[in-house]
Amino acid sequence: MRKDIYEKMEILSNSAKYxxxxxxxxxxxxxKKGELGATHSSGICHTYTSDGRCVSLLKVLLTxxxxxxxxxxxxxxxxxxPRAAFSPRELADITINxxxxxxxxxxxxxxxxxxxxxxxxxxxxxxxxxxRNEYKFNxxxxxxxxxxxxxxxxxxxxxxxxxxxxxxxxxxxxxxxxLAPNKTKAxxxxxxxxxxxxxxxxxxxxxxxxxxxxxxxTPESDKDILKLSSVLYDKGLLKRVYYSAYIPxxxxxxxxxxxxxxxxxxxxxxxxxxxWLLRFYDFTWDEIVSDEFPNLDEEVDPKTSWALxxxxxxxxxxxxxxxxxxxxxxxxGARGVMKILSARRFKRLTFxxxxxxxxxxxxxxxxxxxxKEFQKQVPFYRENIKAALTKPEPKKIHQPSLFDLxxxxxxxEL
Length: 414
Ligand code: SF4
Hints:
This protein is α/β, with parallel strands linked by helices. It folds into 2 domains: 284 residues, Aldolase class I (TIM Barrel); 89 residues, no CATH class. Helices cover 38% and strands 11% of the residues. A 7-stranded mixed β-sheet has the order 1-2-3-4-5-6-7. Strands 8-9 form a two-stranded parallel ribbon. Strand 3, helix 3 and strand 4 form a beta-alpha-beta unit. The longest helix has 18 residues. Bound molecules: iron/sulfur cluster. Iron/sulfur cluster binds next to loops.
């Protein structure tokens, strides 16, 4: 790679690393003698296809010049950082070179706003046209749409991309006004609405759409965040919301947490678990959070928290409970439920049978009976069960690493 291109690449891949739409962001381990492999804080990220395949992507900005001044963003116009911009040709060439060398299988392309919204979208579109039409590149492309971009440009991009997204970042208009004065929720959602309508009009498979919400930069509760996600899922605007624990990058703005504040990783993890309940377990947001408890319990996962607050539905008999009921048992995931449903067609299940089916009962044992047997460990009261569930293990206390949290955010293991 030419030196000037290499320098641009370093600046622009580094500037893209705060976007969490790929799970490997932020994981860093350098090469060590005698060991194999290394990760870098930016450059290559991974995404997962609907069949669970992991795809490596070149994650980069077209430019980190930006006319907007979003206080939480490293690329804001008022921040004094090295700036760079690729031309569409340069970026298309890099993508193809990396692809041919087997470094990547696709591209995750975002950008700061240079000159104006439509000019930036035009540059992105040009990059896509070179890749798709000239180089006949058929790999995965994810494009971050620019808030306020025109419908014609969104339409052209939707034709060429596999996934588009537009980052809402902050859950309320009030916070956006304070910290991202050039944006409104409507201006961020507009391109996604265009993209949804265009793909539906053409009766093609709806294009995958996602957004990112920053967690912990502003005072909104988990209730505000989950309610917003739920509305966006219900409207068919999004396939996925990514939650990003705020990493302080601005020590001048008094409205933001100070730069010594640690990113709220556990809160981010609980939000991913709650999101999983919304999308795959038929929970509604107001079952998970409420006016009384607007924030998720950090001590237990959201499904366990719901069960503890609704002990009237438990203990549940695994031999007679419906599929929907079993899905609400803490510690039993969708796969476990399918195993139970198929095994109980042949016999009444016991706790030993669940073990043989490789269904963990570590958490579930407090909430189920098997053939009327209840492995009663503690009195059946909320406080007693919660104390038993959160009691540290005597020998090995496993603190979840960043990798564990990210893995679980992808698989949604609950
Ligand atoms: S528009 Fe995007 S790149 Fe520009 S300052 Fe705001 S968040 Fe950063």
